[in-house]
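TL;DR need structure tokens for one chain.
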Amino acid sequence: MNTLITQRLDDAAEVIEALREATDDIALISSVIIDRISNGGTIMAAGNGGSAAQAMHFCEELTGRYRETRPALPAICLCSDAAAMSCIANDFGWENVFMRQLEAHASFTIDDEDEENAISNDVLLVLSTSGNSANVNTALECANELGIVTIGLLGKDGGGSADLCDHCIVIDATDSAAIQDGHQVVLHAICEVIEAWVAEEMANETEEVA
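>> reply
TL;DR here they are.
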């Protein structure tokens, strides 16, 4: 029993330690999310199984709080509405359960430089240990067509999702549990950066009022 536990800890530690090489990528992804939120965009997250739970976790950190009490941030988990998912799966197929919701929730504004075109400040963040989930990749394809920024937290070699994401972090491991361990650390690191940004914005507003 202890051997199994030790192996689990070792696998997680190895993946997490390797993430030190991805700090610049995590910082970039955090900056993209902050930019989109500050311009009125919404973060949409999706995944299957354990990755769905992590997508839900990330969204509640934004709409609720991570560490500090601060204004709620716009985030929608595309895996949390069982009625919507079962309806879409029944009528359109499982591969479309995220895409249809993405279409429904995507928001657009008129481009000041080109009034005939609308732009989106939304973000689609997907989690997949394989990168080959059909419903995830269908949503990514849709997001790309709509001009929505796509971010992937992936595993193994990134699968088909890697080529469909504007930004991605690939956990180079074969064990799904270890990959998800790494993904969770990345999500919390992003939350750290976002909350630091919100705190700075709130401090600046206080100084302006004073």
